[in-house]
Write a structure and sequence with these properties.
331 residues; alpha+beta; BirA Bifunctional Protein, domain 2; Enolase-like, domain 1; 2 domains; 12 helices
Length: 331
C-alpha cells in the first residue's frame, strides 16, 4: 500500500488540524495539502498558553488550537499552503533520528522553493531559509504509530496581527519581536514571486511523489470524518488547550532557528536579550536599578555553551546566577 494524497484545497480551520491527527490515529500513510479559510493561531504541543493574549483573541474572534506535535506557536491564514506528511514509524523510509527525518522530508519543500527561483536550504532543526531569512517553519511529532510532519509555504506574510495576539511582558519586547519577525521571516511575495495557489500545490505534490512514490488521490471518507469528530471533543477541551507546556520562569519567543528573544524579571533583576547560533547577539542586564554593562560586555564575547558563562554571571550577580544562565542558554 502506497501513500494517499488528500489534496483538499480550502478547509474549515478546525478541519485543517483535525485531518492529520485523524489520519495518524488511523495509521493512514498520507500527504495532505490544504489551506485554511479562517485565520487562527496554533500552539505547539510544548508551548505555554501564557504566550497568548486571550482577551485580544476573544475581541478579534481569533480561534486557537493546540496540536499534538512540536514546533512553535504559529499564525495560520489563507496566504499559506499547508503540507502534512503522515508516515508509520516502522516504514523503512522513516528515520529514527529527527535530524535525518527533517532533512529527508523537507527536501521536497526545498525543491518546491527552488523551482520558483529561490535558493532555499534547511536550517537545522527544521526551518527552511534563504538569504538569511526564514521562509518556512516546521514541526513534527509522534501520534500513535505514526510520525507527522507539519509545515507551510508562505505566499504572503504580515506579522502585525500575530504580534498583537501574543502576550509580552512589556512594549519593548513586543517591538523587538515585531522588528525581528519582519526582518527575518519572508514569503514568496517578499521576493517578488506571485504565483497561483494551485501551482504551488501541484509542485509540492510532484516533489513529494518523487520521494514517496506514486500518490493515490483520495477523498476524506466516513471513517476519517468520524475519527475527526471524536478528536474534536478531545482537542478542544479547555484543559488541553490551556496546558502550560514548558512553563518557564522567563519569557522566550522563537523567531527563527538562529533568533530567540528572551526576557527575565525577578525582584531587582531584569534581563533582556537576543540569542543567535550559540552566541548572544544582544543583552541588557539591570540589577538594583543599574545597567551591568561590564557583565554584558563579557557575556557578548563568550559562546553560550562555554563553561565560563555561569562563572562570569556568578561574579557579578551570585544570588541570581543560575537563573540568568538558564535564561541565556534557553531550551
Amino acid at each position: 500500500m502506497g501513500f494517499k494524497l488528500f489534496n483538499l484545497g480550502l478547509q474549515n480551520w478546525k478541519d485543517t488540524q483535525l485531518i492529520y491527527h485523524a489520519l495518524a490515529e488511523l495509521s493512514i500513510e498520507s500527504l495532505v495539502i490544504q489551506q485554511t479559510r479562517e485565520n487562527y493561531i496554533c500552539l505547539g504541543m510544548f508551548n505555554s498558553a501564557k504566550e497568548l493574549d486571550f482577551d485580544y483573541l476573544k475581541r478579534k474572534n481569533i480561534p486557537v488550537f493546540r496540536r499534538e506535535i512540536g514546533g512553535g506557536t504559529v499564525w495560520l491564514d489563507r496566504a499559506q499552503i499547508f503540507y502534512h506528511l503522515i508516515i508509520r514509524r516502522d516504514n523503512p523510509l522513516c528515520p529514527i533520528k529527527n535530524e535525518t527525518f527533517f532533512t529527508r522530508f523537507l527536501q521536497p519543500v526545498v525543491d518546491t522553493y527552488k523551482s520558483f527561483g529561490i535558493d532555499a536550504s534547511i536550517k537545522p532543526a527544521c526551518d527552511i531559509v534563504t538569504e538569511g531569512k526564514k521562509i518556512s517553519g516546521n514541526g513534527a511529532g509522534t501520534i500513535e504509530d505514526c510520525k507527522v510532519l507539519s509545515g507551510s509555504i508562505l505566499l504572503e506574510f504580515n506579522p502585525e496581527t500575530f504580534i498583537e495576539a501574543l502576550s509580552f511582558p512589556d512594549e519593548r519586547f513586543r517591538k523587538a519581536a515585531f522588528e525581528q519577525m519582519t526582518s527575518r521571516v519572508a514569503s514568496l511575495s517578499h521576493f517578488g514571486i506571485w504565483v497561483e495557489e494551485q501551482e504551488v500545490r501541484d509542485r509540492l505534490i510532484q516533489n513529494f511523489s518523487e520521494l514517496l512514490g506514486d500518490l493515490e488521490r483520495v477523498e476524506v471518507d466516513t471513517r476519517i470524518r468520524k475519527t475527526m469528530k471524536s478528536l474534536e471533543a478531545e482537542k478542544f477541551d479547555e484543559e488541553w488547550l490551556l496546558e502550560t507546556g514548558k512553563d518557564r520562569y522567563w519569557r522566550e519567543i522563537k523567531i527563527a532557528e538562529e533568533c530567540y528573544l528572551f526576557h527575565f524579571l525577578r525582584d531587582d533583576t531584569q534581563v533582556f536579550g537576543r540569542r543567535g547560533d550559540n552566541k548572544l547577539e544582544e543583552i541588557e542586564i539591570i540589577h538594583h536599578g543599574n545597567r551591568v554593562e561590564k557583565l554584558e560586555s563579557l557575556l557578548l564575547k563568550e559562546q553560550i555553551n562555554s563553561g565560563k558563562i555561569l562563572n562570569i554571571i556568578e561574579s557579578y550577580i551570585p544570588h541570581k546566577s543560575e537563573e540568568i544562565f538558564r535564561v541565556i542558554k534557553g531550551g
